[in-house]
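Exercise (ungraded).
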Amino acid sequence: MTSPATSTRTSRGPGFALGRFLSNNGALAGLVVLAVALSILSPSFLSTRNLLNVGVQAAVVAVLAFGVTFVIVAGGIDLSVGSVAALSGMVGAWLATTAGLPGVVALLLGLATGAAAGLVNGLLVSFGRLPAFIATLAMLSIARGLTLVVSQGSPVATPDVISALGANLGPYLPVPLLVMLLFFVIASVVLNRTYTGRAMYAIGGNEEAARLSGINVRGQQLAIYALSGLFAAVAGMLLAGRLSSAGPQAANGYELDAIAAVVIGGASLSGGVGRASGTLIGALVLAVLRNGLNLLGVSPFWQQVVIGVVIALAVLLDTLRRRGR
Amino acid sequence: MTELPAEQRRGPGGDAGAGQAAGELLRVEGITKRFTGALALDGVDFQVRAGEVHVLLGENGAGKSTLVKVLAGVHNPDRGTVHVDGKPVRITSPQHARALGIAVIYQELTLVPELTVAENLFLGRQPRRFGLVDKARVRRDSVALLERVGLRVDPATPVKQLGIAQQQMVEIARALDLNARVLVLDEPTAVLTDTETERLLTIMGELRDQGVGLVFITHHLEEIRRIADRITVLRDGRSVGVLPAGSSVEAMIELMVGRAIEDQYPRRAGEPGEVLLSIDGLTRKGVFSDVSLRVRAGEVVGIAGLVGAGRTEVVRAAFGVDHYDSGTVTVAGERLPGGDVRAAMRAGLGLVPEDRKGQGLVLSSSVGENLGLVTMRAATRAGFVDRAGQRRRAEEMAAALRVKTSGLNQTVRELSGGNQQKLVIGKWLLADPKVLVLDEPTRGVDVGAKVEIYELVNRMTASGRGVLLVSSDLPEVIGMSDRVVVMAHGRVAGELSTEGLTQDQVMALAVQEPQQQAAEREQPQQQAAGD
Ligand SMILES: Nc1ncnc2c1ncn2[C@@H]1O[C@H](COP(=O)(O)OP(=O)(O)OP(=O)(O)O)[C@@H](O)[C@H]1O
Ligand SMILES: [Mg+2]
């Protein structure tokens, strides 16, 4: 298809290829710079223990963010994931500890709760024609409220299966890290290989064209929001497992970190663009940044400011890069 | 070298700029622009004089729009110089281009759909009074501007309610008001019907007489013959020659594609088979009424008519995109439920929509992804898409349509307009429906690629499929259809066999007024043919 003339003209040296790779993966470049800088500034940054710690820190946000990636690629937004994570963890813990169900059953029902909350989001958006922002904002409030109702305002201990999600496998390997990698693979496969994943790109890129090509836009939206809810539930279990208890205020505000991770990872909030690998890097950037600021003894108040600035910079650079073409 | 007398050294216009020809407004030299994956312009020279229509001609992806965007300050050239009034300039932004007197009508529409016609016309330059937008004046001026281009719509209409041809006329009206010295028009006539094209060419003629320099891009070679003073031909980013006014269509084709084209409309009709698509008494109040037509296996049926005749509305309703109030649509014996695109597709209907950017393509996705959009469902097993198969089919279709791209992974947004259009057709050709409705399928496609699309249409009908072809391009409708249904004011004004049919005969039906139609319906139709 390409005329031979143009294809020969495009070959360049390896330096060019590396430059292009990094400019196309701004978040990765940022992560590398950040890691190098921190390893110079703080000797303890590169220790195995600290790095594993960073991975664990990143895990919850990353899993949340994979779910949000689906929604954002499909041109929507999901503000409810933090609350849905808390609700799912709470339901899992409460069913086992208070209602006395077997731990595995409680875990599965907790996950189902998350998927159901996502499904309701999907119904409101696709059939209810509510803007995603409004529908999921409502769910943010509803799910948090339900968490408080179920817990009656105090933390509930988690059953062993859920606690195991927050523990180590053998002496070193933290389970959250493994779960994060597993869901990274799942998210990549969903986005790249499945019908629903490809439909996300089509719907987010041009909903009308998707509809006229025979894609069941509403049906797919249900699936997409339900997936986001399910991923949020998994994140909720990780969080509860790490603390061995589900708290009523768990994951408060995590939706913002999740969205930030997706956007830092190169997804476009107008839909149609985004990758699981980008989101993973976005979540790692946030975790490394928080960890580094802690190691350097920066006050938590200033950390908020720095993270806000980084998010703005990441998106700004991305827009500039796009415009520069 | 002997010194010439002063009078002779000067051009006829008394022009004294160094090396500058008479009345030259704009000159670019050696313009080169490379995108990742493609060299779009490769040392192009080009000039625009006052009072000329300078046509840019070339195949899809030759670099025409890229050159336009360099002049408009959208793209920064890698190499080369731009002179305005003999002075070298670097055009840094669209605003800068405007300030230099260059106005551009882009190939893709740039209107804001949510805003009204009037707001779009004065976007960013509303007349103000006491710091507020002077609405009365905006309205008054809008009416005058719309009058000038002959568009009869209320300036308070939101642009998204207009058809694509009407939107194009709004773009033109907006550019006219800029009082540019150089007016660049990138395929403005692609979405227009003859009447509007006529009007635009007249306006362009007037501007030329007023000394405006016009740059005009079109794939309709007849228009070039009518209005061009000079024709610069681009091929693969290079200027391969300049043709004078009055050059023959054959000469243009030869220089543009490097070979002659035997037959521009290579329709091979066979014996029609059973009825595949039957639209009966389809009515949507206030839009179209009592529309009936049939498409048989092996047949290409054309629908002709003016803009606003309801052609697009009818086929959209038939495909289930919009609702209708009464009537039936039957595909291969199966009556469609109405308002359900997927049911229509399952029954074997397909629609290539007229608006590629709005309805046809996912611009942010890749070439391969777009080509596979319709076939994706069929290629899915247990939720997983057969990507290798999709890729292979996409490769084949891209090759058959000669899509100019750096590969299946290239983002569609980066393709030239005509190559984007090929993808909209390609994804439906891959789906191979029983009846394919093509709504303005060759908009912006170059003459060579059109023939390839027509050959694929021939292949469809030869294998027992049916095609319904909606087109404002009369030679195309007549040349490629076996019979033509002419619509006027939302009704079928008549049906004509294309044997020996002339454009005038089609137009005579297309411009019929509603009363005239009613009168004719009283008498038995003598023009009905083919059915
Ligand atoms: N932003 C971009 N990024 C990468 N490649 C591009 C970009 N814009 C244009 N191109 C490439 O440059 C070449 C010339 O494109 P251009 O739009 O100028 O063609 P054109 O002559 O206007 O064609 P058409 O008749 O189809 O409108 C094409 O191969 C196209 O794919
Ligand atoms: Mg173009």
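Further reading is listed at the end of the chapter. For now, observe: The first helix of chain A runs from residue 4 to 9. Chain A touches chain B at residues 1-3, 5-7, 9-10, 20, 193-196, 198-199, 201-202, 204-206, 208-216, 268, 271-273, 325 (CB under 8 Å).
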